[in-house]
Amino acid sequence: MGLMMLLTSCSGPTLDHYAGSTPAFDLKAYFTGPIKAWGVVQDRKGHVTRKFDVEMIGTWVDDVGTLEEHFRYYDGETQKRTWIIRKIEDNRYEGAAGDIIGTAHGNVNGSAMRWKYEMDLTVEGSTYRITFDDWMFIMNDGVLINRSYLKKFGFTVAELTIFMQKQ
């Protein structure tokens, strides 16, 4: 019994939990037009290691979207990323960007989206292959909260929190 409780407690959240929750997350509608965002990166101890602002603009043609992201870190670094996102079927998406390894996979249910992908991150001169487990929650008033768990060998090594607002 104790082993079963331990195993189920480690399984983590699922999108099924958000079925029917509101407001409904319409990915194409949210990521169309300009969006402003603010974020922090925290190490595994919870210390904020970086802060940043992001300006985004999204466009869609049928079921293919382009999301341009322009990051400005508080330490002066800038970064650009362009996502190409494809709607595969109702509530299922795939995406790619120049610095993303392979294909990102996403699913929407109710007011939540889970987006998973891999990326090589350079930290203090060393490069690490990191799995991103993004959870996005649509809120009222054009706000979206994104909680990202950065994992190496299945263990969370950092967390990323972004607050977005449609402009």
Task: Explain the layout of strands and helices.
Layout: H1 2-9, H2 27-30, E1 33-43, E2 48-61, E3 64-73, E4 78-89, E5 92-96, E6 100-109, E7 112-123, E8 126-138, E9 143-152, E10 155-166
Antiparallel strand pairs: 1-2, 1-10, 2-3, 3-4, 4-5, 5-6, 6-7, 7-8, 8-9, 9-10
Mean pLDDT: 93
Radius of gyration: 16 Å
The level of helicity is under 10%
Topology, number of strands = 10
**How far do the termini sit from each other?**
51 Å
Q: Mind telling me the CATH superfamily name?
A: Calycin beta-barrel core domain
Tell me the strand percentage band.
over 45%
Please name the CATH architecture. Answer: Beta Barrel
Structural write-up:
The radius of gyration is 16 Å and the shape is globular. The longest helix has 8 residues, at 2-9. By secondary structure, the protein is mostly beta strands. Strand 2 and strand 3 (64-73) form a beta hairpin. The protein has helices at 2-9, 27-30, and strands at residues 33-43, 48-61, 64-73, 78-89, 92-96, 100-109, 112-123, 126-138, 143-152, 155-166. It has one domain (20-166): Lipocalin (Beta Barrel), CATH 2.40.128. It is built from 2 helices and 10 strands.
